[in-house]
Amino acid sequence: MFFLIHHLEAWYSLADVYAEMAAADDFLPLVASIPRRFPGAREFQDEELVHDGLTKFGIPHIRLRSDDSFQDLAVVRAFSPDVVFRQSQWDLDVPDAFTTNELAFARLCLVPYEPMGLVRNPADSAINPGYDCAYYRQAWRVFLANDLARDEVMSQAPATRPDQYVVTGHPKADLLRRKITLGAPGADRPFTILWSAHHSIDDHWVRFGMFHRMALDMVEMAQRHPEWRFVLSLHPALAVKLESADPPLDADFVAAFWRDWNGLPNTSLFPGGDYGPLFANTDALLCDGLSWLLEYQLAGKPVVFLQREGHRPFNALGNIALTGMNQVDSLPIAEGLFEQFAAGRPDPHKPAQAEVVAALFGSSGAASRIVAAIRTGLVAD
Fold it and tell me: What CATH number should be reported for the domain holding residue 110?
């Protein structure tokens, strides 16, 4: 079993699967860190970030970072893996040697990095590139969180085999539940807002991102509320866009934001990686999209969804998730909600969150079901 890891921030999706295999007598899981190129990046990068993160997680791994990625592919092939896990379906995010066609020598598996897709087709085309793509078409197994997620995928990416798409639950949910339970908040911690910013800030793709419209206003909110604490978590692709400062951003805007944000005593930036303790040690989420709108509901805390006009519509899964969150269309309304929550007002959507989690994540044990399905499939082959 070979795990190619380029998206450290999504390791939670595979962590329990790896651990389950490592503890089994009949599996030998191997992990490798590889470079990545998220939208906006001009070159492959961040292998060292992935390596450092896996090291902090305690995951033994090799580093594949040759200038010629096909030399790294030769290393992978030398292990003759029965199964290869890649972290996403996006071929453009990984070096050429790790694209779908180059990995066809092994059985390809996928545990989606997001628990499930929450929006309709994100592209301006009849084909959904998130599902009707090379990796989904060639995957031996894709493990999905629930029947509705499987129906969503099947309607847009017909299976090539009857057993290709397997409903197991999502292992990220199990790990997050444990992390949230173990990460008890500090005794004297101030009211803390987790601000999650999505990368889709232009007028393409899903159009959820609001960073370019709200960043300086968030600085002002933090200034108005020195008694609160604010933690910013950037989608890794947004971090790339801030570095390049391409439209709708510009270098002066980005520099002004970081100067003001970093200059306040009650603001910070989450470096990425192990975010379960972050969920445990914050009191509410401000989010413009996407997966944390659902994942944070596992913490049973207020989710405030700041909607951008004209974003891609939610699908059936997204509409279920919406019932557990507070939907607002302006930052002042969001601030008013936070003032109420900080004063002790219960979140009116908290009861619905338990229903959302039960409906979309189901029971625990997803990693065990995934490993069992792989074991059964290998025997059948």
Answer: 3.40.50.2000
Residues 192 and 145 in one domain: no
Q: What is the pLDDT of residue 187?
A: 67
The reported pLDDT for the residue numbered 182 is 87
Average pLDDT over the chain, rounded to whole? 96
Q: Within a domain: residue 176?
A: no
**288 is a domain residue:** yes
Given this model, what pLDDT does residue 366 score?
98
Looking at residue 125, its pLDDT comes to 72
> What is the model's pLDDT at position 110?
98
Note whether residue 61 is domain-resident: yes
pLDDT beneath 70: ranges in the chain? 123, 184-187
Owning domain of residue 22: 2-169+365-380
Structural domain count, the chain = 2
Residue 22 placed within a domain? yes
SS (H, E, C) the chain: CEEEECCHHHCHHHHHHHHHHHHCCCCCCEEEECCECCCCCCCCECHHHHHHHHHHHCCCCEECCCCCHHHHHHHHHHCCCCEEEECCCCHHHCCHHHCHHHHCCCEEEECCCCCCCCECCCCCCCCCCCCCCHHHHHCCEEEECCHHHHHHHHHHCCCCCCCCEEECCCHHHHHHHHHHHHCCCCCCCCCEEEEEECCCCCCCCCCCCCHHHHHHHHHHHHHHCCCCEEEEEECHHHHHHHHHCCCCCCHHHHHHHHHHHHCCCCEEECCCCCCHHHHHCCCEEEECCCHHHHHHHHHCCCEEEECCCCCCCECHHHHHHHCCCEEECCHHHHHHHHHHHHCCCCCCCHHHHHHHHHHHHCCCCHHHHHHHHHHHHHHHC
pLDDT, position 28? 98
